[in-house]
Amino acid sequence: YGCIPDILKHNGLMRWALLKAMSHYDQIWVLDKYSFNALLAIPEICDKVRLTPNSIEVNQLDCISPKNYNNFAFIANVLPTKGIFELIEAAKKMKYNIQLHIVGPATEKMLFLLKESAADLWGQKILYHGKIANQQAVLLMKEMDALILPTYFPGEAFPISILEAMSCGKLVIATPRAAIADMLTALDGMRCGILVREKSVEDIVKAIEWVIENKTLADKICMKAYEKVWSSYRTDVVYELYRNNYRDLL
């Protein structure tokens, strides 16, 4: 997961314990290229490392409908380090009329702070759906135009919500945290999502406004995202990686 390279940068107890533990295993499976490349640089374990991303069931889409880019969703645990307050500030500064849908569990204190931050926009342009079942979240995502996850969560790894959005042909706006930059790199090496800097309200505003002002280009990015999730993160594809890893062990 995404913080392994950060641990390896420091010659402390955590680094020693991590490498000591890994030395006892025949294979080390990691989710993201960031961690994969960091572990490849360790001679004692480099031959054990395998890149195995998360996977998702992906339905085949014949086409991806054009979008108006009015409805944006945040789907995650509602924590400050997921970038939720920066996202609310961005919604308040938007020159366009959008709706932000927040989905995920939040403590009573967190909910109070969200309402306080959103002020008059709460219940109008900023809607909180609470914690809902995964199937309901997918159905909601299908009604959205884009997913926004401006996370700087220290333990961020490989967000399933991004895969869900890509599989629905939706646009993704996120930070390049952990595996996210890999996820939002298309098969041709171009971007299949929009990356913003961590903790940057300005970047979030610019990204949303660009999408609204460039709908056709945004739709093309959505198509690239769908192609990426179909070819790289579909369950059949990832499970074959697992099978190959097991064959190597045998």
Description of the structure:
This protein folds into 2 domains: 70 residues; 162 residues, Glycogen Phosphorylase B (Rossmann fold, 3-Layer(aba) Sandwich), CATH 3.40.50.2000. The chain is built from 11 helices and 8 strands. The strands form 2 sheets. The protein has a 6-stranded parallel beta sheet, sandwiched between helices. The protein has a two-stranded parallel ribbon with strand order 1-2. The longest helix has 18 residues.
Give descriptors for this structure:
250 residues; alpha/beta; Rossmann fold; 2 domains; 8 strands; 12% strand; globular
Summarize the structure.
The chain has 250 residues and is an alpha/beta fold. Helices cover 45% and strands 12% of the residues.
Low-confidence stretches: none
What profile does the largest beta sheet have?
A: 6 strands, parallel
Radius of gyration: 19 Å
CATH topology of the largest domain: Rossmann fold
Helix and strand element order:
HHEHEEHEHEHEHEHEHHH
Distance between the termini: 26 Å
- Overall, the morphology is globular
Alpha-beta content class: alpha/beta
Oligomeric composition of the shown chains: single chain
Number of alpha- plus pi-helical segments: 11
Tell me roughly what share of residues is in helical segments.
Answer: 40-55%
Please indicate the count of domains.
2
The CATH superfamily of the largest domain bears the name: Glycogen Phosphorylase B
Number of strands: 8
Order of strands, main sheet, comes to: 5-4-3-6-7-8
Percent of residues in beta strands? 5-15%
Mean pLDDT: 95
Q: What would CATH call the architecture of the largest domain? A: 3-Layer(aba) Sandwich
The CATH class assignment of the largest domain is Alpha Beta
